[in-house]
Amino acid sequence: MSHFQYQLIEVARRKERLITRTGSQRVAIGASLRELRGPISVVDHGLGIVHFLRAHPLIVATVIAAVAAFRRRSLVSLAGSAISLWRIWRSVSA
To answer: Which helix (H) or strand (E) element contains residue 81?
Structure first.
C-alpha cells in the first residue's frame, strides 16, 4: 500500500469520525433548544408587548395618567375631574 493510499484511508476515517461527532452534536443542540422553547416563548411574548407599546404610546400615557390619578385622588374628586374634562371636551368639539 502506497503512502498516498494510506493518507486517503486516514482522511476517510477522519471524515467518518467527524460525521459521527457532528450527528451527536446536532442531537445535543436539538435537546438544548427543546429545553429553551418555554423561556424563548416568554421572551418572544414580552418583546411583542414591548413592540405593541412602542407603536401605541397613547395607551402607555393613558395608563400612566390613570395610575397617577388613582394614587393621588379619591374616587369622588376623580369623578369630578372626569365630568369637568367631559364638559370641556363637549364645548371644544361642538
So the answer is: helix 75-93
Rounded-to-integer distance, Cα 24 and Cα 8, Å: 25
70 contact partners, CB below 8 Å, separation of at least 6:
78
Q: Quick one: cell of 56? A: 401605541
Q: Which amino acid is at 17?
A: R
Q: Which of 3, 25, 22 is nearest to 14 (CA)?
A: 22
Residues in the chain predicted with pLDDT less than 50, given as ranges, are none
Whether 53 contacts 59, CB under 8 Å: yes
**DSSP element (H, E) containing 41:** helix 3-55
What is the structure's pLDDT at 47?
A: 94
pTM for this model (two decimals): 0.44
The pLDDT value given to residue 51? 94
